[in-house]
Amino acid sequence: MTRSPARLRIEVVLEWYWKPTPRPLEYLSRERPQYHRRRAMGSTDRPQKLTKKDIEALAPGRHFDPAIAGFGVDVSPAGKRTFFCRYWQGGRRRFIKVGLLGEITVEQAREQAQRIRGAAVLGMEPRAELGLERAKSDDPAPTFKSWRKTYLEELEGRRKGLKMISYHLGRCPAAWGPRKLAEITERDVAAVLTARRKAPIAANRWLATLSACFGLAKRRRLIDANPCENVEFYPENAPRSRTLSSDELGKLHAAIDAEPDIYVRAAIVLQLQTGCRIGETLAAKWEDFDLGAGVWRLPSPKAGRPQTIFLHPVTCGWLKELPRGGSYVILGRDPDKPRHDFKRAWRRVRAAAGLDGDTRTHDIRRTVGMLVAREAGLHLASRVLRHSDVRMTARVYAPLDEREIRGAVAGFLPAMSGETK
């Protein structure tokens, strides 16, 4: 069969068009993208499923199974491993707790997650379709506004800082009020935190307060997951470590002696001799003192439970001579209310002592902790400062000064150089 010139021209063009383009050797040796590998004929490349052995080795946090989108396990710091399934419903991300490792197997949890996601894909409500609805009670699921009120009422009389807790919860968006607790997601919390990034410390305190509020709701089984658990805090600066040197303490005592207000003198000296907080000094009442026994009882300190401060005989001596004009030891303008204008008095004493403008009254407490730790050890310093955790004393209130560090360096250098003592 003879081919016409026109047909020959068409065949030549098609042969040129479909001829493979030569590729350099280095291109052929490259690893192809995952997308193309999966589309290759006969490919056996599949994501590996999490096994029980893998899950038992996981660190605390949230981990996802690469085999099923949205299926994973939450590992608590205590070691509890909870399976969950995450899916989208009505434009919002939802969480369903599947079960605990040990109560169900990994395969059972994975099958349940597939059923949950299948129901969500078909437009059905997984809880209703799979019988996962909670038992209905007389009260409907609480809104954020109603739960916030309940949470604050339960903390009444149990938490000393209830005013600050109420303040931070009151800074939540007003749009959250009528929403159900389960409808507030991790994305909502992260958006508010991002909007407050210019004040990172205040944003962190808000997040911590909100996390505690949702944490109680989770323990009451009102929600399946705490939307604050995986939202990261902003980094904060290292804690303040300013202490007063011996020269500064001498200048401060001279300024106290020259201070005309006897109650300002008493407030600062009481802090110097006990290491108490200035707020505790200003709130002290005569009924809290037993000067005969040398005891000062704090009925409502920062820790929230009654505490005791033991007084030196010198402290008891000048307290007995301090004029009493009301129920409070440190008198202010109103004898029946604690003094509230001490910042102005402290600035006056600080200027008279020649201390820098950044020196605060709390630096006195930190100085007491450092001196007690140096003389009697860290444990006793923690007891004097009434800390519940000695690590707080070591990290903030008993810093090492330059002389101690230089002495430690001088102590090990001979050994490092090979010299014998």
Give a brief outline of the structure.
By secondary structure, this protein is an alpha+beta fold. It has helices spanning 5-17, 25-28, 34-39, 52-56, 106-121, 126-129, 144-155, 162-170, 186-195, 200-219, 246-258, 262-274, 278-282, 313-321, 342-353, 362-376, 378-385, 390-397, 402-416, and strands at residues 61-64, 71-75, 81-89, 92-100, 289-290, 295-298, 307-310.
Question: What is the secondary structure topology, with strand pairs?
Answer:
Elements: H1 5-17, H2 25-28, H3 34-39, H4 52-56, E1 61-64, E2 71-75, E3 81-89, E4 92-100, H5 106-121, H6 126-129, H7 144-155, H8 162-170, H9 186-195, H10 200-219, H11 246-258, H12 262-274, H13 278-282, E5 289-290, E6 295-298, E7 307-310, H14 313-321, H15 342-353, H16 362-376, H17 378-385, H18 390-397, H19 402-416
Antiparallel strand pairs: 1-2, 2-3, 3-4, 5-6, 6-7
Helix pairs in contact: 11-15, 16-17, 17-18
Question: Descriptors for this entry?
Answer:
single chain; 421 residues; alpha+beta; Double Stranded RNA Binding Domain; hpI Integrase, Chain A; 3 domains; four-stranded antiparallel β-sheet; three-stranded antiparallel β-sheet
What does this structure look like?
The protein has helices at 5-17, 25-28, 34-39, 52-56, 106-121, 126-129, 144-155, 162-170, 186-195, 200-219, 246-258, 262-274, 278-282, 313-321, 342-353, 362-376, 378-385, 390-397, 402-416, and strands at residues 61-64, 71-75, 81-89, 92-100, 289-290, 295-298, 307-310. It is an alpha+beta fold and 421 residues long. It has 3 domains: 54-129, Integrase, DNA-binding domain (Double Stranded RNA Binding Domain), CATH 3.30.160.390; 144-219; 246-404, Intergrase catalytic core (hpI Integrase, Chain A, Orthogonal Bundle). Helix 11 packs across helix 15, helix 16 (362-376) runs antiparallel to helix 17 and helix 17 (378-385) crosses helix 18. It is elongated, with a radius of gyration of 34 Å.
